[in-house]
Amino acid sequence: MIQANQYHQQLKNISQVLLNSGMGKLPAMTKTNGQPVKLDEQPDLMVHFLRRCSYGFSTAELTFAQSIGLDAYLEYQLAPEEMNTDALENLLNQVFSSLQMSYAEIIARSRTDNDFNPAFELIAATLIRAAYNPSQLFEIMVEFWSNHFNVNIFDGPIQVFKGVDDRDNVRPNALGNFRDLLHANAKSPAMLYYLDGFSNTADGPNENYARELMELHTLGVNGGYSEDDVKEVARCFTGWTLSEQADELFVFYAPNHDTGSKTVLGQFIPAGGGIEDGEAVLDILASHPSTAAFIAKKLCQRFISDTPPQAVIDAVAATFVQTDGDIKAILRTLFTHAEFATSAGQKFKRPIEYVLSIFRSLSPLSTGRSFEFIYRQVRNLGQTPFSYPAPTGYSDESSSWLNTNALLDRWNLGFAIGFGDLGLGRNVDDDNTAGSGPLAADFLSIPVLTMLGSARTAAAITDRMVEQVLHHSINQNDRDALIKLAADGEPVTVPLSLDQAMASARAVLAVLLASRYFQQR
Amino acid sequence: MKRREFLKISGLAAVPLISPRLVFAQQQGSSASDVLVCVYQRGAADGLNLVVPHGDADYYLKRPNIGIAKPNQSNGAIDLDGYFGLNPNMASLKPIYDAGDLAVVHAVGSPDPSRSHFEAQDYMEFGTPGINTTADGWLNRYLSTLASPASTFQGVGFGHVQLALQGQQPVVGMNSIDGYDLNTHADDEDPLRTAITELFNQSAEIDDASHNILASVDELKMADPGSIEVENNAVYPPSPFGNDMKQVAQLIKSGIGLQVACVDVGGWDHHDQLVAAMSPLAADFADTLAAFYTDLGANMSGVTVVTMTEFGRRVAENASLGTDHGHGSVMFAMGAGTHGGQVITDWPGLAEQNLFQGDLAITTDYRTVLADALINRLSAQDISTVFPGFQGPLSAGVFSAL
Q1: DSSP B85-131
Q2: Which residues neighbour A252 within 8 Å (Cβ) at sequence distance 6 or greater?
Q3: For residue B270, what is the domain's CATH number?
């Protein structure tokens, strides 16, 4: 498993470049202004949408979204190509040389430079994009498809292959067409290696890719295929392999192809075919109604709830069929469906979402160590990008993430961030030994004084922190509990001294970050 | 059982969390089960150099450079039964073997032919070789068969919650006993707890987990395993494995209600220079197990330790004087309830025609050994829940019945 300490120098270098560039300050550059957010116990639709289509958001971003309205904001998020992300991309290319390399260049460099680590560069770039890019929905969809077509980046040469796959296959198609994504993935060296397709020959068929292609990538486990279909699909893909002589590494090697006729899902594929046998399979699968239903359900589980209502799955699947897998159209149907509007709070944040939402919500002051915070905490909480060991990818259900140990880790992270003067680590963070390591404020310094503003009474402090952290109000019992915490034994109506008010604000912040309101989205 | 039901039964949800209650105290002494400690050798440990088949001539033919010499030769194996011998770095286990409290199972493993570390580990920990979509681990499913969970600490994973422990049953993952606590200032702790308790006052899963956190932190404080000293002059190696096992012993002695523990010991993927790389690991592995045995002393009558690894190594050494990924390997079983002092195996032999794709064949399924432990030492009734689809056999003669 990846260890932070082995990348210590790289972490420092990245942090320094981000700091020098001003990127370290990016979230804080958008000052809080405009009207106070309306406080509802249930978040309004815009807040709900932002919680689902972003990795967290500041008051400034909410104000912007409200100024253009939900429909326009959805279209804004669906058009990442219109956003100017050049500054960030240029910076990433400057720090991470592998991001612009061809397969041949990455392979050659890997063979000669022991310090070259394209896997770490991709993981770092992915987290930095998710943290800083305004194209939040796009980055979430990149994560979704990467996870859907999961490969484990630490499995042999995939650490060399995955970056090009991410750049050339996943990102260009993440809001494009599912069929294109499927075809690109089938020829991707990372997938050909991970699921053994490269060794699938007429003499020695390997069914690994064929099975996962139908079970995990398209039809779903109950999508209507048989064991015979698995064997036939494997035969169709014989000869799809890898060669260093090919620019994209993928080659169809005809001598290893099974040229007999095949029948896949009832469709006859005549004898004498070549690479088109596999391509025909991909087209059959991309057009299959089970694929539309399977992808629709998975997207609804991502954006609505662990157990989404059938009505919205059906609506999303219908759009998938009508548009032949147009991902933007599919997302429009999903986000404008009535079931989406009423699903607030039904998703438990996964570790990446929890960690990034702390960063993106609180406008931390620049310390130069924000990336280190994000990387280490995501790793400690168990969701390092591209690192899930099985082809299923990381689970999107709360049962996989919500347990005593994991929640205690999140609480302790929230407490550390809220109070600022505690170590980040507890239990799982080897890098931040309690008592001897750096303090939370060394990584993320939260501008509590700014957040506090002129609030001095317990009630005012509570309301102000709730508004800025959650952007919606909370139920009265919970508000009372926080007011009691903020009052710290004093009468709730008596203004506190600035020092006391700051301490109260920090305590309220700590509990808010631990609370269900911030664990869920 | 869901966490929610557990809470109702244990009464945790109704207990004021600032004045913790020792829910595990009722269970003390009433349990007719051993504590099961599962040690996982991550990276695929070379069973053939851990427990050397020095009586098999093919071993020396296939490992001319990295083979462990016969007993009584320089750096030779420590003979166990005239045919097998321990790696010379594992001498500390020999007295336990001689005392009848340590058994070796050889040519054992998961029947799935995967030679991917992650996939093979997942299969083993799910308890479903060949199926990687299983929702929970075999140890968590074992916990689900228990009548009433004794404690949040019924299952503890060191370092993290191992896949084998993951599932619906409440378990705890920890790096250290000291570190398993709320990360806050002493003055702030009570007000924070009060606020947290009031904010997590509904009956959703997240509320149950929250109550479990406060309860488990309190349970740990009350049981105070960190204050328990190492006994009988046992000396744990100053290694991660040694440190973890020392804390498992503390948890056991504290009576906190531990039923199953998972501990990892990594670094066994020796593709090159196997002898040099493996010697210190083998010593750490053996010395830690021996220290644990010494430390627990008479308590070992209620403790069973089982070790496993995802697969073994290729029988023939490679050009780098290491071994590549293979198939069968070795498991150790330790405890007073072990039919120790023997190497239990249906030895397939290392001649070419007896190998499985060039590797040591598996003649005992790892689930047979684990089922043996669960049935005989943990009074398990329902192996079909723990290992769905497993056809047995359910005993390899490794353990005596309680």
Answers
A1: EE-GGGGGGHHHHHTT-EEEEEEEE-SS----HHHHHHHHHHT-TT-
A2: A239, A240, A241, A274, A275
A3: 3.40.720
Residues of chain A in contact with residue B184, where contact means CB-CB under 8 angstroms, are: 412, 415, 419, 422, 510
pLDDT confidence of residue B7: 32
Contact B195/A389, CB-based, under 8 Å? Answer: no
Indicate the pairing of strand B260-265 with strand B343-344. Answer: unpaired
Backbone torsions φ then ψ of B39, nearest 5 degrees: -105, 125
Is B56 contained in some domain? Answer: yes
Mean pLDDT confidence for B102-130: 91
Instruction: Indicate the residue of A404, A415, A488 with minimum beta-carbon distance to B184.
Output: A415
Q: What is the pLDDT of residue A29?
A: 33
Judging contacts by C-beta atoms under 8 Å, the chain A residues touching residue B133 are 221, 392
Hey, how many other C-beta atoms are within 10 angstroms of the C-beta on A479?
A: 18
Query: For all residues of chain B together, what is the average pLDDT?
Result: 89
User: Is there a contact between B111 and B343 (Cβ–Cβ < 8 Å)?
Assistant: no
Nearest to B183 among A152, A404, A422 (CB): A422
Domain boundaries, position B183 = 3-14+39-386
* A396 vs A390: CA distance, rounded Å: 14
Contact predicate B386/B167, CB 8 Å: no
Across the interface, do A405 and B152 touch by the CB < 8 Å criterion? no
CA distance B201 to chain A (A): 9
Q: Which of B160, B195, B207 shows the shortest C-beta gap to A511?
A: B195
Instruction: Give residue A40's pLDDT.
Output: 55
Residues of A whose CB is below 8 A from B201: 477
Question: Closest Cα of chain B to A473: distance in Å?
Answer: 14
ipTM above 0.90, yes or no: no
Q: What share of chain A has pLDDT > 90, as a percent? A: 75
Minimal CA separation from A288 to chain B, in Å: 23
Residue A426 pLDDT: 52
Distance from CA of A2 to the nearest CA of B (A): 13
The residue type found at B288 is T
Q: d(Cα B41, Cα B241) in Å, to the nearest integer?
A: 10
Select from A408, A469, A520 the residue whose CB has the most chain B CBs within 10 Å, as the one to mutate to test that interface. A408
How many domains does chain B contain in total?
Answer: 1
Task: Evaluate whether residue B136 is within a structural domain.
Answer: yes
- How far apart (Å, rounded) are the C-alpha atoms in residues B193 and A478? 13
Residue B393 lies in a domain: no
Q: Is residue B219 part of a domain?
A: yes
Average of pLDDT values for B138-157? Answer: 87
Residues of chain A found within 8 Å of residue B180, distances taken between Cβ atoms: 408, 426-427
| Cα–Cα distance measured from residue B397 to residue B377, given in angstroms and rounded to the nearest whole number | 12
Q: By CA distance, what is A380's nearest residue in B?
A: B160
Q: What is the pLDDT of residues B70-114, one digit of tens each?
A: 999 999 999 999 999 999 999 999 999 999 999 999 999 999 988
In A299-335, which positions are buried (b, 16+ CB within 10 angstroms) versus exposed (e)?
bbbbbbbbebbeebbebbbbbbeebebbbbbbbbbbb
Model confidence at A402: pLDDT above 90: no
pLDDT in tens, B319-336: 888 888 899 999 999 999
pTM over 0.90: no
Contact (CB, 8 A) for A440 and A422: yes
The answer to whether the CB atoms of A411 and B191 lie below 8 A apart is no
Q: Which residue of B has its CA nearest to A388?
A: B118
Q: Is the peptide bond before B393 cis (omega within 30 degrees of 0)?
A: yes
How far away is chain A from the Cα of B399, in angstroms, using its nearest Cα? Answer: 33
Instruction: Give contacts of A510 with chain B, Cβ < 8 Å.
Output: 184, 188, 192
Mean pLDDT to the nearest integer, A347-359: 96
Instruction: List, for residues A118-174, the tens digit of each pLDDT value.
Output: 999 999 999 999 999 999 999 999 999 999 999 999 888 999 999 999 999 999 999
- Looking up tokens 């050339």 gives A168
